[in-house]
Design goal:
Length: 297
């Protein structure tokens, strides 16, 4: 009997060991299966990311092609959107000539005030914000009637004004009275790259046209529709009436362009990117430099 008991105990131990081994093998199998799924998912994500990058590059090349075309062969760089299909992906490209925007370093008080009024800032506050911008970018310590200089910033617990030209658009948030929310509302109309105190209405987005403080909303919509139609037909652009002509320039084309590229797979947004194109020279065949930010110039 003791011998039988020892045999049964040995058999029990062997069974337990076998069960543990089976459990261990099962865990190893599950781990390998999970690792394989993760690797497959990572590979798929990498492929999707590479496809999105290639599609974005195609969008940038398409914008450069458009700008290199003679006359009105390319599309009007007024912020209108173009789309194309490539390898099952949709590429949306928006091309904007910076001459259509308000230059933060060059614009006078009328355009700056008009911009704040266009985003529904009260008139007195719009004047104060405009003068605060002018005080921030000039070199002196002389405070405009509604502006702000060093003492005003110190009293508000803020960093001193730059007293120099703006180097980045984001510096506008350092101006007294301009918070992040207000900055987001006006930033689409602003640039540091036109180098002009005026704007080109033939290239201006709706917000800039509103900043001119003349045309009604209906007139702005009709003007944009007419200028795009005229451009496509190769006829002169329409006139924008009811606006101070001193605020306008009609230079045919600028040297700096913003390009916004969105890549989608069906309804899923894969990537969104903004780059700037800067002409290398006066010649139409001089080509462009692609910049990730305008400070690279």
């Amino acid at each position: 009997m003791p011998s039988c008991a020892r045999v049964e105990r040995s058999a029990g131990i062997a069974l337990v060991g076998t069960l543990w081994m089976l459990a261990l093998l099962t865990l190893i199998g599950l781990n390998l299966s999970a690792s394989s799924r993760i690797e497959l998912k990572l590979t798929a994500n990498l492929k999707a990311a590479a496809a999105a990058r290639n599609a974005a590059d195609a969008g940038i090349n398409w914008a450069q092609w458009s700008l290199a075309q003679p006359g009105t062969t390319g599309w009007l760089a007024d912020g209108s959107q173009r789309s194309l299909e490539l390898a099952g992906l949709q590429i949306q490209v928006t091309l904007s000539d910076e001459l259509g925007k308000i230059d933060l370093n060059e614009a006078g008080p009328e355009l700056l005030e008009g911009l704040f009024r266009a985003v529904e800032v009260e008139e007195g506050a719009a004047v104060a914000l405009s003068e605060a911008i002018l005080d921030w970018r000039d070199e002196d310590e002389l405070r405009r009637p509604s502006g702000a200089e060093l003492d005003d910033y110190l009293a508000a617990g803020l960093e001193a004004p730059g007293n120099r030209p703006f180097e980045r658009l984001e510096e506008l948030k350092r101006v007294l009275g301009i918070d992040a929310a207000l900055y987001r509302r006006v930033a689409p109309a602003l640039t540091l790259l036109s180098n002009k105190a005026e704007v080109n209405p033939q290239l201006a987005p709706p917000l800039v046209l509103r900043a001119l403080q003349g045309p009604s909303e209906d007139a702005i919509e009709q003007y944009i529709e007419s200028r795009r139609r005229n451009y496509a037909e190769g006829v002169p652009p329409p006139l924008l009436t009811g606006v101070d002509p001193a605020l306008l320039t009609f230079a045919s084309a600028g040297f700096n362009y913003a390009v916004d590229i969105a890549v989608l797979a069906g309804d899923q947004l894969l990537s969104r990117q903004r780059v700037w194109l800067s002409r290398r020279g006066q010649s139409a065949v001089a080509g462009f430099r692609v910049l990730d930010n305008p400070q690279q110039r």
